[in-house]
Design a protein that fits this description.
By secondary structure, this protein is of the alpha/beta class. The chain is built from ten helices and eight strands. The protein folds into two domains: 178 residues, 3-Layer(aba) Sandwich (Rossmann fold), CATH 3.40.50.720; 77 residues, N-(1-d-carboxylethyl)-l-norvaline Dehydrogenase, domain 2, CATH 1.10.1040. An eight-stranded mixed sheet has the order 3-2-1-4-5-6-7-8, with helices on both faces. Bound molecules: nicotinamide-adenine-dinucleotide.
Length: 285
């Protein structure tokens, strides 16, 4: 199928849904973006335009024509889409419902990927009409700048769906690394634990956020430290992902620490709200 006959549905117009939309339309793939929050939908085209400018500034924007975006609050507008990328809030019951609804209106054989951070794909597969059509594609933030995607093959993911997902990611100029299923897959099984431990270190007064991150950059050569990464991800999403990991592994090391939970309760969710472990200034939607 060529780019012109494709239409991607992106579910969720938050941090990731908007950034995945930017990546898709920059690569000539039209997107229908779905959210239940009208405000998120109203600001989405502006956020996408800003990210397109950022991608161009960073030399990551493809040269071809940018495709169009449509926004909607209804999954019934998704009839006829050729692929679905789900990026709604990291709550297992919510994702299961949204995926069940979308697979009820899409044609058999339409690949559906979840961008879940930590929920096993096979757990979500139990909620959908056709488990063989479901795979995981864990885009990192921001997907229009990060070229590698962790692709998750669940035990029930079919060969045809996996191959369509890899083709879709290639059409978006992304490199895929396919891994097996499990809570947190590869990246978040390690990363979320590291963020939680870094937050606990700040909570205990061992080091400031700036010093924790400076050690990871200076001594280990990481491009950013765990707490700057947490602010970029969104602390609400970090807490949700940690709970998913704790509940599915029984490992208390994933229990979100008190400092993280206090920041979430105070509305300090990181870059998206202007404050988290760091001050990021005013937020421009
Ligand atoms: P977010 O809170 O910024 O956005 C989530 C969006 O989902 C919100 O706009 C919300 O209104 C919408 N939503 C809720 N219920 C919905 C429904 N029924 N139908 C449609 N939309 C609905 O969260 P995010 O950071 O964009 O995360 C989205 C997903 O991506 C999560 O699973 C998260 O774990 C994963 N993820 C996040 C990052 C990151 O860095 N933030 C990275 C990789 C994966």
């Amino acid at each position: 199928m060529n780019q012109r006959t494709q239409r991607i549905a992106v579910l969720g117009a938050g941090v990731m849904g908007v950034a995945i939309t930017t990546l898709a339309i920059a690569n000539g793939l039209p997107v229908t973006l779905v959210d239940v929050d009208e405000t998120k939908l109203a600001t989405a085209p502006g956020r996408v335009r800003k990210q397109l400018r950022m991608a161009a500034l960073m030399g990551s924007a493809p040269k071809g024509r940018v495709a169009a975006i449509e926004v909607t609050t209804s999954v019934y507008d998704l009839v006829g889409v050729t692929a679905v990328i789900e990026a709604v809030t990291e709550l297992p019951e919510l994702k299961a419902k949204v995926l069940a609804d979308v697979t009820a209106v899409t044609a058999p054989g339409t690949p559906v990927v979840t961008n879940t951070s930590a929920i096993p794909v096979d757990e979500l597969a139990s909620a959908v009409a056709r488990p063989a059509d479901l795979a995981g594609a864990h885009f990192m933030n921001p997907p229009y700048l990060i070229r590698t995607v962790e692709v998750i093959r669940g035990p029930r993911t079919g060969d045809a769906a996996l191959s369509k997902v890899l083709d879709l990611l290639a059409a978006m100029d992304r490199e895929s690394i396919v891994v097996a299923d499990g809570p947190g897959f590869v990246i978040n099984r390690v990363l979320q634990r590291m963020i939680n431990e870094a937050a606990r270190i700040v909570q205990e007064g061992v080091a400031s956020p700036a010093d924790v991150d400076a050690l990871f950059r200076g001594c280990l050569g990481h491009r950013t430290g765990p707490l700057a990464t947490a602010d970029l991800i969104g602390l609400d999403n970090v807490a949700d992902s940690l709970r998913v990991l704790r509940d599915r592994t029984g490992d208390d090391g994933y229990e979100p620490c008190a400092l993280l939970l206090d920041k979430v309760a105070a509305g300090d969710h990181g870059r998206k709200t202007g404050r988290g472990f760091y001050d990021h200034g005013e937020v421009h939607p």
